[in-house]
């Protein structure tokens, strides 16, 4: 079997998973300190095979090719509950379908691609529990490869978010590079909190007014934890959720500024942010976007990704040999939907166009050539 590749044909996101009867191929993992991200392809014998791709030819002659319809699945597990991940892999028999072209060591039944620090830390555990080896893929390379694939192959993958408005961006494949990719790990969950009771704002200094001369709104943070210092209070005097929100705001502001300074160094105007730190949180995205916009004076743009947390796993998935990814992306083999149906300016979260912060899948085809 050779010349197999991924061809994304539709961008429908589906919340449910397929039954265990589905045939699985190409499983890849990104094992981080907080989360384990998983990508795998599944097909079902009941699903039709595309007639258009049944035969293709090359200079040496012709060969039989089938485009097998299926789904590209995205799953995540907490690293501290790694046994849940192992159980899922075992229950779905995913460990029997690692890579089509990778030879397994003598003491393993199969090998799967994996990236992240956990690929080293938990290698023995995967061998002991599932009898599979982890073929380590360089983490930075995986992140970049995953971002490149998703930006080229999935419609409406990127979007901007500022002042509560979310707008999808149509990426010109011929004008994608160069860009800065900022991957922010470590999952964060924010439920409630008010940083304004802890942070010193511009309005606190200027009597509730904006400092319009340099473009600072009254709600702009002048000093993180400023009120805690000026009011001579201890951190224990504040609600934990307010402290957490102040920290999140401070971290996000710094990420935005540092990202822009790196973009400035290399003359870049486009910055993509990924990683499960963001997780589609409006507050985090808005803070980062406002910081980039402020420090760049509107010249640079912060953009976010629907599959933000799966870049590494997607890149590891694409590292299987002979997957034909570059060839498919160069030909832009993607079903382009009418503009009115894609990239709405304002979008409520839905199973079809929502951010993939939970488990889901994309309908696609894999080309299998004999």
UniProtKB/TrEMBL annotation:
CDD domains: ASKHA_NBD_PanK-II_Pank4. GO terms for biological process: coenzyme A biosynthetic process. InterPro entries: ATPase_NBD, Type_II_PanK. It comes from the Eukaryota. GO terms for cellular component: cytosol; nucleus. GO terms for molecular function: ATP binding; pantothenate kinase activity. PANTHER family: PANTOTHENATE KINASE, PANTOTHENATE KINASE 1. This is Pantothenate kinase 1. It comes from Escallonia herrerae.
